Amino acid sequence: MLSHSIIFGCIGLGMVATVVVIATDSKQLAGMINVFTGKDELSRFQRVYLPAFLTAMLADWLQGPFVYALYQGYGIDREHNGYLFVAGFGASALFGTFVGAAADQNGRKKFALLYCMVYLGHCFTKHFNNFFVLTIGRILGGISTSLLFSVFDSWLVSESQRRGFEDEQLGNTFSLAYFGSSIAAIGAGQLGEVAANMMPLTEVGGGLHYGGYITPFDLANVFLVLCMFIIIRNWSENFGQNSGGGSDFSGALQVIFAKKQVLYCGLVASAFESSMFIFVFNWTPCLMEEGEPTPPFGHIFSCFMIMCMLGSRIFSYLSGVMPIEQIGLITMVLAGCSHLVVIVSGDVTTRFFAFLAFEMSVGLYFPMIGTLKGDIVPEDMRSTIYNIYRFPLNVAVLLPLLLNFSITTTFCLTTAILVVAGACSFLLMQMRANAPKESKSLPNKDPQEMDSIVGKQEDLGSNQEDLDSIVVKQEDFGKQKEMDV
Predict the structure, then answer these.
(1) Region class of 202: left (phi > 0), else alpha (psi between -120 and 50), else beta
(2) Per the structure, how many domains does the chain have?
């Protein structure tokens, strides 16, 4: 049985380690203090982005832990519960590719607001004990998830580049964002538990319910309305850079397959995040033992979030001493090894420590991939490509759900996926190490445009020689005039 002392000990050690990492990095500590004081331009920009992002994430964290439990409260069995989750991931895979292109074309601020409105509808459907209505809700949830994990990042990268911030500054913003997200998750778990216990699940009539596990969804709606207010008041609009008109799906696909860095970056993102979502569905049974009391999942979840928070702080430290691509490779190796442990060991304590390592890798991953995508993905079709990255992710998550894989088979799959992610991360690191300047200069130009630019530069050089000759002749003429006078 997983000991409570181990769980609480890991919570304490995780908190201490996080404080130590922050305290020993003066630059990181100063950056966190600056967010509250707003002393420089970067911190003032972070104060524009972070409140909206963290409010959106808090709304997501509030309802996430209670979806399955609410469906059980409505009497929905495990099989039909799985169908509802399939509807959500299927909707994310199908609609996510289109909403990304629409966000690039019509404006990312508008689609961040759309995320809030769609998620409001998703949460409202939880009041009805009706399978069809709940299915509609899961579809809305899948669409809103695609928006949350693409539009907000796209807005941040575009606005950060417009204001002239460097890659390291963008990485610091991502690191702060996911550090705050971990804190929000810890708070949301406790707040949601209190809300769910305020009153029992009660039927009004006609399938309409209130109270119980519905209350965290109602609380999430409060934060979604607050998020809309913050975005409307503080955010400016931005589009894809090519004429403010955005991009199309087929054009984004061509870019992905034509530019190896964009392709490898997408494979890393899809592989890691699919393993992460599969993990979310399977960590609970991995820590349960037949004939033993149910583990304190709320405390375990808080422990996971603390390790995730620690990972985001470690990223902030490592980003100052090594390339982002190298951090990415370390993250993939750490994640792959942690999933491998589940295959080779059935001991719940060993698995628990492996899961802590994986959650640390999650904390490292999000600021790493956010910075990497910000540097690699073309700005004019950023949201579109981000959502294309999510398509294989959703397909991979659906596979074990539909085929009802065992725990061992599931983690064999995720380990293999993470091996692929590690290989792509290594190739990307090698590619960018060999040609670091080429990836950043004129990232959206094709070879013909490059040749045209080079030709114009050569013409300019020859014209400059003619100008120098004219200047010399003018100087000689001036001297001659002085002698005549």
Answers:
(1) beta
(2) 1
